[in-house]
Amino acid sequence: MARLEFEKIQPTVGNSFRLYHATDEESCRVYWHHHPEYEIVYIPAGKGRRQIGRHLSRYEDGELVFIGPNIPHLNFAYGQSSDFEEFVIQLREDFLGKEFLKNVEMESIQLLFEKSKRGLAFGMDTKRKVGEKIQQMPTQTGFERMMTLLWVLQEMALAVDVELLHSEANSPDVPPKETERLRRIYSFVETHFQTDINPNEVAETVNLSLPAFCRYFKKMTHQTFTEFVNDYRINHARVMLLQNINVAEVAYECGFNNLSHFNRTFRKLTHQSPGEYRRQFSTALYPLS
C-alpha cells in the first residue's frame, strides 16, 4: 500500500461544505489518503475497487458510500472499468454549527454520522434515490444545495439497504500527532491570512525549525506553505467577489497589500481575472433572459 497522505479540504465557494463533480479520472489522483471531514461518494455507474480502512471489495453498478472522519481510503477512480464520473461531498460534523445535530429533529442524522465511522455502503434503491438528488447539486444555488444535502442525509439515515464495512469504528493508521499538527497549521492560517504571515512563526507553533517545517508541509500536502496560503486567500477572495465589494478592498481583506500581486495570483490559480470571475459566477447564478 502506498504511503498514507493527509488531504486538506476547503469548502466550495459560497458553501459550508465541499462539493465537486469529476468526469475525468485523471482529475482524481489515485492515492491512499485520509482527512478529518466526513465524505459522501456517489458514482452513477460502472464498477471498480472499494478500499476503505481495512475493508477491500469491488462495487458494481455504481457506488454510494458514507465515510467517517480520518478513515484511510483509496480514491474511487482506481479500478474503474467504464467512463468515469464521480460526485463527492465533504463536510465536518459541525458544518451547520456545533449544536445543530443535537436538535431532536436531527436524531437520525446524528446516528448516521456515528455509524459512518465504521464506513457505510448503500444498496441500489438508496443509491438511485439519493443519486438523483446529488446529481442536481452542482447547478443549484447555495440554499438549494444545503436543503438537498439535508434531504440526502435523512434518506441515508433511514435507509435499510445499508452495509457496515467494519464491525467496529475503524482506527485510522495515521498518528494523531500528525493530524493535530496540520490542524494547528491550518488554524494559524485561518486566523492570520489577512496579515503578512511569517513562516517562522508558524514553524514555532508546531515546534519545528523553518527548514524542517517546509519539508514537512510539502511532504504532507504536496504544496509549499506559500502556495497553500495563496490558495486559502484566493478561495476567500472568491467568496467576497460574489458580494458587492470592490476588487481592491477584496485584495486588502484577503492579505494582499498590492493589487497587481492579487490580480496575478488570482489569474494564476483560476485562469481568470477577478472581474471575469465575478461576471461569470453572477451569470451562472442569475442567467440573462
UniProtKB/TrEMBL annotation:
Q: Which GO terms describe its molecular function?
A: DNA-binding transcription factor activity; sequence-specific DNA binding
Q: Where is the HTH araC/xylS-type domain?
A: 183-280
User: Quick check: keyword Transcription regulation in the entry?
Assistant: yes
List UniProt keywords, sorted A-Z.
DNA-binding, Transcription, Transcription regulation
Q: Which Pfam families match?
A: AraC_binding, HTH_18
Q: Which residues cross the membrane?
A: none
Q: Which InterPro entries does the UniProt record give? A: AraC-bd (IPR003313), Homeodomain-like_sf (IPR009057), HTH_AraC (IPR018060), RmlC-like_jellyroll (IPR014710), RmlC_Cupin_sf (IPR011051), Tscrpt_reg_AraC-type_HTH (IPR020449)
What PANTHER family does the database record attribute to this sequence? ARAC-FAMILY TRANSCRIPTIONAL REGULATOR (PTHR43280), TRANSCRIPTIONAL REGULATOR MTLR (PTHR43280:SF27)
Record-given protein name: AraC family transcriptional regulator
Q: Which organism is it from?
A: Runella aurantiaca
